[in-house]
């Protein structure tokens, strides 16, 4: 009878187990913090002309007057769909954003209609002057870099609104002609 010989692998040492666990933890942490995830990608404005509804009032954005807006949040918010939170007015965007910020949501990017980059119309309706809506992707600009006409006689979808312009001189001229004052993003965000 011959004895069977077995060749056993040596058991890992405590040092080897700890080193392996440490390497795995480091790789996992680097994956969480490193580039490549959706939160690290630059947000770009999306088109809101295909019947998308405002996340505050539920109205179809492209069917109403005034500036449109969108906010991208970190951590995939809002969870019910891909893409940004959407709005048919800057005023509603600001209220929604303030509420989400209080819940700990982090803004990645915010975009609003830039009236300096579109051929807008002023239209009379229900005894008020309204500004046309522009919600194609190319009509949006970084909300934090624009100048806003507040308290003018020109209204958006929900009444008085903040009308954004990338050109400060155009914003000043609009306010001079239609009333109101020109504010920057930090001032507008504080008026919610």
TrEMBL record:
PROSITE patterns per the UniProt record, alphabetical: PROKAR_LIPOPROTEIN (PS51257), TAT (PS51318)
Coiled-coil ranges per UniProt: none
Protein name: Nitrous oxide reductase accessory protein NosL
Domain of life of the source: Archaea
InterPro entries: N2O_reductase_NosL, TAT_signal
Organism: Natronorubrum texcoconense
């Amino acid at each position: 009878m011959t004895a069977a010989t077995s060749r056993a692998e040596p058991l890992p040492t405590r040092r080897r187990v700890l080193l392996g666990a440490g390497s795995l933890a480091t790789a996992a942490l680097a994956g969480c913090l490193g580039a490549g995830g959706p939160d690290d990608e630059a947000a770009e404005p999306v088109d809101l002309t295909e019947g998308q509804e405002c996340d505050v009032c539920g109205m179809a954005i492209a069917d109403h007057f005034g500036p449109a807006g969108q906010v991208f949040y970190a951590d995939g918010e809002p969870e019910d769909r891909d893409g940004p939170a959407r709005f048919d007015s800057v005023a509603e965007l600001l209220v929604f954003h303030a509420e989400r910020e209080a819940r700990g949501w982090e803004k990645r990017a915010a975009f609003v209609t830039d009236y300096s980059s579109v051929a807008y119309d002023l239209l009379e309706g229900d005894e008020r002057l309204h500004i046309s809506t522009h919600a194609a992707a190319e009509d949006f600009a970084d909300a934090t870099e624009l100048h806003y006409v507040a308290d003018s006689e020109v209204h958006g979808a929900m009444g008085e609104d903040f009308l954004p312009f990338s050109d400060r001189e155009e914003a000043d001229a609009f306010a001079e002609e239609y009333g109101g004052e020109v504010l920057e993003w930090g001032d507008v965000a504080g008026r919610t």
